[in-house]
Every structure is written in C-alpha cells, then in structure tokens.
Amino acid sequence: MQPNDPGRLRKAPENFLDADGVRTVWREAKAGRRDFVRAAFAAAVAGAGAAASPRAVAQPTNPVPSEGGDANILNLPEHSRGLGQPVATDGYGKPSKYEANVQRRMSPGLTQTAQASVSFAPLQSLFGIVTPSGLHFERHHQGWWDVDPSKHRLMVNGSDEKIVRKPMVFTMDEVMRLPSVSRFHFIECGANTGMEWGNVAVPTAQYSHGMLSCSEFTGVPLKLLLDLAGADYKRGRYVLAEGADGSSMTRTIPMEMVESGEVLVAYGQNGEMLRPENGYPLRLVVPGVQGVSWVKYLRRIEVGDKPYGTKDEVLHYVDLMPGGLHRQYTSIQECKSVVTTPSGGQVLLDKGFYQITGLAWSGRGKVKRVDVSVDGGRNWKTASLSQPVMDKCLTRFSLPWTWDGRPALIQSRAMDDTGYVQPTYRQLRAVRGTRSIYHNNAIQTWLVQESGEVKNVQLS
Ligand SMILES: Nc1nc2c(c(=O)[nH]1)N[C@H]1C(S)=C(S)[C@@H](COP(=O)(O)O)O[C@H]1N2
Ligand SMILES: [Mo]
Fold first, then answer.
1. Do 340 and 323 sit in the same domain of this protein?
2. Last residue of a domain, one of 274, 309, 327
3. Structural domain contains residue 197
4. Within 10 A of 85 (CB to CB), how many other CB atoms are there?
5. Which residue's CA is minimally distant from atom 24 of ligand 1?
C-alpha cells in the first residue's frame, strides 16, 4: 500500500533520554500524570543534539521544497564534499552515535541496587525479529562473568553409573568440533510482564515486555553429547543443567525435549560467540521454555530418573494461585504478542497513516495468526506476518492503520498452531488470580490519546 498521508511518529522517550530522563518518565508515570510524556519530550528536545532530537524524526517530507527551501536538501552537506574516514581500525563496529540512546536499560521501577540483575531490551526501537546481541536482555542471579574458554569444561554424568555409562568432560574445542546446527529462537524470562499483574502501568514496551529477545543460536544438540556419553534413555528421563556462576543455577529438563533434538548446547549467537552477559562460552538453549532453564556458563549435565526439584524449581519460579495453591513446573511460555509501534511513550504527531507493528511468539510452536484491534477488542483485523515464521521464534506482524485523531485502544491477540489464543486479562485472572509474578501472557493495551500520546492501560 502507498500511504499518501504519512503520519508522523516520535519514538519512545528512551531513544532520546539519558538515565535521569528515564527516571523522570518513570516517576511521572507512577504518579499518574497524564502529561508526563509531553514534559519528558520538552526536556529531551532541550537536552538532545539536533540530529538526535524528535524534531529531526518528525521532519515533514514535502514533495517540493517549501518557500525559502529546506537547507537539508538544498545545501550539500560536509559528508558529500570532503573525504570520509578510513576503515574503522578499532576492529569491532558500533552503532551510529545518533542511535546512542537505543539501549537496554534497567527498570527504574525496580529496586535499585549496586548489583543490578535485570536489563530490558528496547523492543520499541527494533525492527524484524532478531535482537542485536548488544541489546539482548540480561538476567543474572549472581552477576555475569567473562569465562576463559580455554579453561571452561562441560561434564556429562549420570545420577548413577548405569544411567550414563561413560561420563565425559568436554573442552570447548571438543564441543566445537562436533556437527552443529543454527536455529532462531526467542528467549523470554518467566517474569516478563510480571509487573502488570499488579496493574503497575510501566511506561513503555521496553519495561512491560523487554525481558524478551531473539537470536540465531549455534551449537550442538544436547542429545548428541548424551549419545556420546552412553546415556540410558529408558531410565534417564530427566536432565539437570548446572551453570558455572555462583548462583548454582540448576534446572530440570524433561528428556522428551532433549530427545526431540531441540535442546542445544550453544556457543554461537547471531553469527559470533555468545556475549559474556548471555553465558559465554556455553549456554543451554531450551526452545519455548522460560529463560531460567537456558542455563548460562553451562558446566554440567546430569542424567537422572526423576525431576531434581532444585531451589529454582520449588522455591522460585512458582506462581501463587487463587485459593493459596502454588503452581510449579510451569515452564513453557504460552502464546503471546505485543504491539511495539505505537506503544507506550511514543507520540503520534498527526492524524493519518501508521503501520501498526509488533511481535508474536509461542513456546508451543509457530504463530499462526495475529489479530489487531484499535477499539479495545470490539473489532479485530488479521495482521500480516513477516516471513519466515519459525518455530518457537519471534514473528513480526503488521497492519496498516489510518488514525482519525480520536482516542484508540490498540491491542494484538496471537494464536499459535495448536489453536491456543492469547487471553485477555479478565480470562487470565479468572484462572490465575492476581498474585502471580510469572507467565503473564495477557493481551496488552496501548491507549492512543487525542494528544497523540500513547499510554499503557489495562482494560478490566
Ligand atoms: N548460570 C546462569 N544461568 C542463567 C541465569 C543465571 O543467573 N545464571 N539466569 C537465568 C534467567 S532467570 C534467565 S531469564 C536467562 C536470561 O538470559 P540472558 O541474560 O542471556 O538474557 O538466563 C537464565 N540462565
Ligand atoms: Mo528469568
């Protein structure tokens, strides 16, 4: 479609604000001030350099230069006249300085400590489905390490001598000599969107949904390592994965997942080695399963005949249900989606054309369909899905929309190839109550106000 009335959009405030600015947005969002975005933008415009300011983003594109002319097209800029820079000799490329505010960020809404342990990916600033490695979200239970790969070892053993006949210790070189596969998968922390359970309207998609990332992972199927070590798949129905950091991160993985060939012992992420924050030099990739099972700095796999019931399974990552029951061992990330544009913190500057776009995913398979509503779920239109649509991977959806300038309630609702449909908050709370932290996959609503400002709201 050829949009002949292009609407103009300001990006989320994170793109323009420094850390202090983000904290201000947060405080004002929490205080419920309707005009917090406007205030933040005033500050941002005053503070930012010309090229990075929202004004630059909002430049109208006139077919004919207006009276007096647009200096930016009439005058040859310096970079068209002089000699550019020689090849970048610092050995590793960086984003443009004008993109410096596209950052993963700690949530100013969480308790700030010297040892911050979560950062969120800036979903509202990203295109396609792959998260650049430097913007991948982080969650560290005991801080991150840059582990020396020449000293790193992976041990494969059994809970007794018979369950793994030939326990083995692999060096990185040995792991990397084996036949490898590369696959695109999302990773989502089970606590992603956790604050919304308590109806805390975090201001942007970064903080509501940013414990989510997607990469091409390269590694060896765990099944291959277990085969080499002579695992007994009749008795050995579970594996325990252990990380080499101080958090004693240990999780039970059912053997069916391993036998399917999906679980990877990965060293590659987006074409290069894993980043230290993401588990360098080795991490487990458990497609569809909540992030905590993707053990980083992976150093040991034990095969056993029953679930291990480790601290991160019985004490943590447990959901309090209505009636006081605890829900345990819920590891799969159910079908979910979020609109990233327009999303909280962004501002629509004009009526007219916008491309509504966002991300959908399911821990059970492929995204089959995404519907989008601009009236809070009364009417739905089916969005188009960008190809390829992959298994347990982020899927980009989009729908053209003409904003008439009146308030709109924007939602997306994903369905996966099992037929499961993403629930509303009302449906989710009817089953799960209000006291959970984990596994919130409810439909997200963004309110576009008449002013064009977009806010995080929940429909009851
Ligand atoms: N060894 C180890 N593995 C770990 C963790 C950890 O703290 N230590 N955190 C887990 C949690 S809770 C999540 S959500 C993911 C986060 O992965 P990322 O930091 O690469 O985004 O790693 C998981 N694996
Ligand atoms: Mo997590």
1. no
2. 327
3. yes
4. 7
5. 295
State the Cα–Cα distance between residues 294 and 282, nearest whole angstrom. 10
201 and 284 in a single domain? The answer is yes
Contact call for residues 166 and 306 (beta carbons, < 8 A) = no
Give yes or no: residues 288 and 150 share one domain: yes
Residue nearest to ligand 1 atom 10, measured at CA: 292
If you measure from the C-alpha of residue 192 to the centroid of ligand 2, how many angstroms do you get, rounded to a whole number? Answer: 8
Domain holding 402: CATH number? 2.60.40.650
Residue 138 near ligand 1, beta carbon < 6 Å = yes
CB of 202 shorter than 6 A to ligand 1: no
The pLDDT tens digits for 281-304 are 999 999 999 999 999 999 999 999
Task: Give domain status of residue 248, yes or no.
Answer: yes
In a 13 Å sphere around the CA of 67, the CA atoms on its Cβ side amount to 0
Domain count, the chain: 3
Q: Which domain holds residue 341?
A: 336-457
Question: What's the rounded Cα separation, in Å, for the pair 296 and 284?
Answer: 6
Q: Ligand 1, atom 11: nearest CA belongs to which residue?
A: 292
Say if 117 falls within a structural domain: no
Which bound ligand lies closest to the C-alpha atom of 251? 1
Most distant CA atoms of the chain, gap in Å: 85
From the CB of 297, is ligand 1 less than 6 Å away? Answer: yes
Cα angle value 99/104/108 (rounded, 5°): 120
Ligand 1 in contact with 137 (CB < 6 A)? yes
295 lines ligand 1 (CB under 6 A): yes
CA distance 128 to 226: 35
- Give the span between the Cα atoms of 115 and 119, in whole angstroms: 12
Q: How far is the CA of 58 from the centre of ligand 2 (A)?
A: 37
Residue-wise pLDDT tens digits, 200-241: 788 999 999 999 999 999 999 999 999 999 999 999 999 999
Give this prediction's pTM: 0.90
- Give the ligand 1 atom nearest the CA of 138: 19
Ligand 1 centre from 98 Cα, in Å? 31
Are residues 187 and 314 both part of a single domain?
yes
The pLDDT mean for the chain works out to 88
- Res. 447 pLDDT band, cuts 50 70 90: very high
Q: What is the CATH number of the domain that holds 250?
A: 3.90.420.10
Q: What mean pLDDT is predicted for residues 417-440?
A: 94
Would you give the distance in Å from CA 66 to the centre of its chain?
42
**Which residue owns the Cα nearest ligand 1 atom 2?**
296
Asked if 367 and 407 sit in the same domain, the reply is yes
Does 272 map to a domain?
Answer: yes
Mutate which of 135, 154, 294 for ligand 1 pocket (most atoms within 8 A of beta carbon):
294
